[in-house]
Amino acid sequence: MIGYAVSRPFALSVRGQRKTLKAAPSLETPTADTVYISAQWEIDMLQQALTEAWPQANKAELLRIISSATLVRTAGFPVLLGAGAYADPEHQSPPQCLVLQLRSLKAAQPFREHFRLLVINGFVSNLGDTMIGLTAFRQVLSVLRAELPAVSVDLMLGWHKDDRLERLVRNVEGIDAVLTQGLSLAEMSRYQGIFDTSRLLLLPRYGKMPMVDWYLWWFGIEPSQVAAADKRNQVAIPAEADRAVADGLTPKAGPRILVNPHASVLLRSMPESALRRLIEHLLSAWPEADVLLTHQLNIHSPRLQFVSKITPTVDHLAALLTQVDGLIGVDTYTQHLADATSTPSVTMMASMELEVYPYYPLGESLLLPGASQLSGWGKAKVAPSDWAAASSHYEMAWETLDFDAVLSALRRMMAKKQASYRAYPIRFHPEPGPERKLSTRQAVIEGMELDMPIRQREDPLAQLLHQTVIGLGKQVLARGDTVVYLGAGAGAAALPLARMVGGQGRLVAFEPRRELYQLLCANLARAGIRHAEAHFAMPEGEGYAVREIAHLSMDDEYLPLSMGNSEQLEPIVCWPLDARKIEACRLLTVCSPLPLLSVLQGAGNTIRRCQPVIVAGVLYWRDVSRLTEFLAGFGYHVRTLEVSDSALPESGIQYAILAAEPPGGTAHIN
Fold first, then answer.
1. pLDDT for 169-209, tens place per residue?
2. Are strands 637-644 and 654-661 parallel, antiparallel or unpaired?
3. I need a surface site. Which of 124, 132, 474, 517 has the fewest CB within 10 A?
4. CA 356 to CA 208: how far, in whole Å?
5. Radius of gyration, alpha carbons of the chain
6. What single DSSP character describes residue 651?
7. How many Cβ atoms sit within 10 Å of the Cβ of residue 384?
């Protein structure tokens, strides 16, 4: 994990994405909103783009690289989790360190009900490692859910050429947001903990233990504590992809054998000369088999079908694996798919130990002859210059591969499945569907269905305020009345009041928290309430002005009476209720976190003209006298409901809700 700051505003535009970077006021002392965490390849592409934009400039004057050690020492930065939290992970990280870390995290924030975590770099940049990483993540998720009251996890991927990785992780249980660009330091404040897999190929123990075990260890779980059956992969296959592949395959007479010779890098791929020999040998030695090939090759046979056109996405490739009887491939994504689909497979390993994937019961690995003596041994990839020098040696090694041994291994795996067919079902996880509804949950309030923020905490003070407002509304409102609600939130109390005054009445609502305002409008539309007007504004001041308030994200935990839950600021227009010049108002509600006194001061003419019943709360007891004095200046009789926070009874802090009746009023507030 690294961060960076730039000295000039810049728009990084590459690979179908664009990111607008703010200039730091100073590279030595950048602000939280001008420090960015690099997603995969982001810093490399940025350095190249800056060089192209200002070729004569001193690079140190354009860009500052900020180390991981500096980032984690920043105040408010999320806690680093897993083995990567230790300076020497191989020797310092204890078994099951994740459990210890989560308990410490929970102890440090005992009143938090929901924890949000981030995986930086995702599960690396290729499909195979990502699928294995997801397998490990399912075990990590069970630990997270056991140790934390509630948890969600976001993935920060990177600037990929296509959406294959996004499709693979989409709708995986436990994963909320999938990010394709790095976040600012200010945006990182929404997270309580992070896992960091940056520069994965260079991390301790990578390639020296089974891959799924490595992910478990790096995320802080002792691999020996996880059953072998739980280390197998799962896959989601959309029905439309399955149908498209089935329609595109030629009818088969015998077993279908899929051959995939290409990995993401040449080091692990089969040369064309070896591929040609394999296909010719397979067609000759297995006359009843139909051969499917993932890549084009200048060879013709009625039993050979090229399938690249019917597998345009990873979903279609997964569907294809369910419709073949065996796979011959190299160390790449298809062998991990074959495990998920319980497809017998043989994998030819050119650079890694055979034991790196030991948990696939229907998969057998064969080592390329002499591979351990070649320059790429133990590596997932090599530099282009190194490959240019080594490629001829690998071609010679592939020429010595015994293809009879390959076919014999595949026949053994196919016979194993045939002997115990029911023991090897396809391992599905839920099929990808429409985007999940992450931000809201349904609630029924006064018989009305509303969408409420999913991360909003239960707050006895807010509940009491809403009950008071609704109860008072039932006492004083009639159909045709106008009710004003300042600080309406998502509408938990405002919508029931709107229903009370009916279609001939009116609800005037103000809400300065943008996401809650948007949800308020959606709830009004969903309920069919057309006699309402909602204003995205802060109802205070003497005229029109703009100021900044803390952003509130509904995806993050917050209390309903709080203004924001982020270090990010966003502008809000301020104008007083008096500017609306309401002609009639029967009930005026002012709700925290709005500044109650200044909001009421901005409604002074409305109060004097309309003389509504007023509810204000929740406020600290020490502030009661000031509001009471203000309302008494209009001749109001104020009643005070003294309350305490039942969630923190030991604090001794007292709160109040005020209900005020106008002079000569007949509301008889109870």
1. 877 888 988 898 999 999 999 999 999 998 888 899 988 89
2. antiparallel
3. 474
4. 8
5. 32
6. G
7. 8
159: which residues sit within 8 A by CB, 6+ positions away? 14, 15, 17, 39, 40, 41, 42, 45, 180, 181
* Contact criterion met (CB below 8 Å) for 94 and 207: no
Q: Which helix or strand (DSSP H or E) is residue 589 part of?
A: strand 587-591
Residue with tokens 């083995």: 83
Strand positions, DSSP E, 25-170 = 36-37, 63-66, 79-80, 115-120, 151-156
Strand duo 175-179 + 304-306: pairing: unpaired
Q: Please report how many Cα atoms fall inside a 13 Å half-sphere around the Cα of residue 278, on the Cβ side.
A: 30
Instruction: Provide the pairing of β-strand 115-120 with 36-37.
Output: unpaired
Task: Give the 3-state secondary structure of residue 507.
Answer: strand
**Phi, psi at 588, each rounded to 5°:** -120, 120
Of the candidates 668, 615, 600, 666, the one whose C-alpha atom is nearest the C-alpha of residue 469 is 615
Coil, strand or helix: which one is 631?
helix
Compute how many other C-beta atoms are within 10 angstroms of the C-beta atom of residue 597.
17
Torsion angle, alpha carbons of 234, 240, 244, 245, to 10:
10
Structure tokens at 579: 């500017």
Give the tokens for residue 287: 């006359």
Cα distances (angstroms) measured from residue 223 to each of 94, 365, 525: 12, 22, 51
CA contacts within 13 A on the Cβ side of 506: 10
